[in-house]
Amino acid sequence: MLRIKLLPLVIPLITKISFCEDKKVCYKPSCYLSYLFSTPTVEEEIEVPKEKIEVTKIDSSNIIEKELNILSDIKDKTEASNIIEKELNLQENLLKEIKKNPLSLEFVKNKTQELCDLAVYNNIVAFLYVPSEFMTNEMLEYVIKKNPFLLEIIPENKQTSNLCELAMDLNIKSYEYVCDKLRTENYYVRCIKTNFANELCPQTFLGKIPDSKKTEKICYYLALRGYFEYVPENLRTYELCKIGLKKSGINASIKENYIPKKYLPFIEYDKIMKKYTLP
Question: Which of 34, 159, 171, 174 could bond 27 through an S-S bridge, CB–CB 3.0 to 4.6 Å?
Fold first, then answer.
């Protein structure tokens, strides 16, 4: 009975307020109808003020840049790997070519120690194309043993006393290729003692010895080997004069031109001839 009586009251109410602004049934908490009707298939409409909405923007440019950098690194590493592989293949091919034809070292732009060693040990002539930075002590010794006169093309900063002595041991005539800084007293004495100057004109060597480098020892061997005329005047001692005269066979030219006059009265030629003999 009650339901029949109320129905006329409810229907007009529904008819009056069952629709909101957009003519939809509104189930907002503030709406009276939300207490009377509920439909689980319809979502509730909740109004959120626009000023309360915060939008987080994602900077895609940073992500793209990072990805590009990664790709670039991968590309660079790949290219580097390819370059290294090509270089290794090139080096391997060069080694084969140098072993086959050592003189082709002349045309190799980027020479290495390995290439230079291989070329020289297979053909000594390839030494002509070896840069100074690849001239090791072992290589130089090998070269000199093969040909002492190659001392001529060895740079001054690569020559050593041992290397020069080795060259002169093998052929004394390689003396002329010894650099100035290594032309010591022993060097000159050695050249004079070998008496090789007799094979040539003495001026080619003896005449080029600077007086500033002539020591008493050098002058002694000059006098002993018959080259008294190359002894500087200030180093012509009484003993050297006697040796010089003995070795020259009492040469009148030596006596008149090279023996100081103060010594002449004291020199007894007959005694000198008997006393001084070659060591």
Answer: 34
